[in-house]
Design a protein that fits this description.
Elements: H1 6-9, H2 13-21, H3 26-33, H4 37-46, H5 50-87, H6 91-111, H7 127-139, H8 144-159
Helix pairs in contact: 2-5, 3-4, 5-6, 7-8
């Protein structure tokens, strides 16, 4: 016989459903009402009324749209300041406005995932790789066929 949902049986189910609809993290709800995070998650997935989930999705979308709208407003303000500074010949303000516009473009690119600032490491030119490669090939010196096979494979990998 299937178990009954511990959240559905909970005396404060209404409050739990409201907390879920308000985008409260599952772990917070679970701790507050003495439930497990997985039980709250299953309840959300299987038993939370569809209209509550739809409201939650709309809230999340609205918050995402607000960020985009705010970013556009800030961009517009920075560009307006830049235009006014150019019109009035204020070189110092022009440079500060250009800097602000550049930072806004950078922020927008980061938010949209178009700017990847993770470090790029080329192992093939690192001294450590050269040391490892030399050590491998030296260890294989007594085994010429294996040394040739490994050298060919390493060269193929390095060519990628």
């Amino acid at each position: 016989m299937p178990r009954t949902c511990s959240v559905c049986r909970h005396p404060e189910r209404g409050a739990i459903d409201c907390a879920l609809a308000a985008l409260t993290p599952l772990r917070v709800i679970a701790g507050r009402y003495g439930l497990t995070r997985s039980a709250v998650g299953r309840h959300f997935d299987d038993h939370l009324p569809a209209q509550v989930r739809a409201t939650q999705a709309a809230q999340a979308e609205g918050q995402a749209l607000d960020v985009l709208q705010q970013l556009k407003a800030i961009n517009a303000a920075a560009l307006a300041v830049l235009k006014d500074a150019r019109d009035h010949g204020d070189g110092d303000l022009v440079l500060r406005a250009v800097d602000r516009v550049q930072r806004q473009i950078e922020l927008q690119a980061k938010l949209l995932g178009e700017l990847d600032e993770r470090p790029q490491v080329n192992l093939l030119v690192s001294p450590e790789w050269t040391t490892v490669r030399t050590a491998i090939l030296a260890a294989l010196a007594p085994y010429p066929p294996a040394r040739v096979a490994v050298a060919e494979r390493l060269s193929a990998l390095e060519a990628l």
